[in-house]
Amino acid sequence: MVQENAASANPNYPLTIVAAVTTQGRNFASHVAIEPSPANGLAATSYVKCEQLQTISKARLTQRIGTLDEVSMQRVRIALLRVLNLT
C-alpha cells in the first residue's frame, strides 16, 4: 500500500491505494527493483511499478507477504514523487 497509514487503518473507509509489484521490470525511473529478503517475503527480484497505481478494496488484501526496508521505501517514495510530478 502506498496510502498514508491513517487512511489505510480507518475501518470505515473500504479502499486503499496500491502500486503494482511484478517480476517483470525495465530500467525505468518509475520501476524500483527490490531484491528478495526474509522481511519482504519476495521469492525473486521484483519491481514496484510506481506508474501503476490503483485504488482497490481492502477486502482484496487477504494476507501480508512482507514489508519493505526503509532504503527501498525511500526509493519508492522518490519514484512516486517523480511519477506524480510532485518534485
Structural overview:
With 87 residues, the protein is α+β, with helices and mostly antiparallel strands. It has a single domain, classed as SH3 type barrels. It is built from two helices and three strands, in the order αβββα. The chain has helices at residues 5-9, 70-83; strands spanning 15-22, 31-34, 46-57. Strands 1-3-2 form a three-stranded antiparallel β-sheet. The longest helix is centred in the last third of the chain and has 14 residues, at 70-83. The protein is globular, with a radius of gyration of 13 Å. The mean pLDDT is 91.
Mean pLDDT: 91
Low-confidence stretches: none
- CATH architecture assignment: Roll
Q: Would you list the SSEs in sequence order as H and E?
A: HEEEH
Distance between the termini: 21 Å
Q: What is the CATH fold-level name?
A: SH3 type barrels
The CATH first-level class comes to: Mainly Beta
Question: What topology does this entry show?
Answer:
Layout: H1 5-9, E1 15-22, E2 31-34, E3 46-57, H2 70-83
Antiparallel strand pairs: 1-3, 2-3
Task: Sum up the structure in keywords.
SH3 type barrels, 87 residues, 22% helix, three-stranded antiparallel beta sheet, alpha+beta, single chain, 28% strand
